Amino acid sequence: MAKKGAGKTTETGAKHGRGAKVEALRSEETQRASGARPTHAQIAQRAREIWERNGRPDGQEEKNWRQAEEELKREMSHG
Question: Contact 38/63 with Cβ under 8 angstroms?
């Protein structure tokens, strides 16, 4: 017997993890609207992108982190 509601799509149209992405986008919109700062996870992801874009150099962690934080703050303040 199948469980009631199994396999249904949620109100956001999310199924199999897509809901998390929708919630993350809503969270970012809320942060922008409230003037909030970027989260640790957002900064870490951006810093990694910067590191990869620059050829994965050693010893640039702090520089990449600061750059990521500044980029995100600027994006959040300008929408």
Answer: no
SS3 27: helix
pTM of full prediction above 0.70: no
Q: Which residue, among 27, 21, 28, 20, has the nearest Cα to 75 in the 3D structure?
A: 28
Query: What's the whole-number mean pLDDT along residues 25-32?
Result: 60
Spatial contact of 75 and 42, defined as CB atoms under 8 Å apart: no
Q: Residue 11 has what pLDDT? A: 44
Contact indicator for 52, 69 with CB cutoff of 8 Å: no
14 with 39: CB under 8 angstroms? no
Residue position matching structure tokens 């970027």: 38
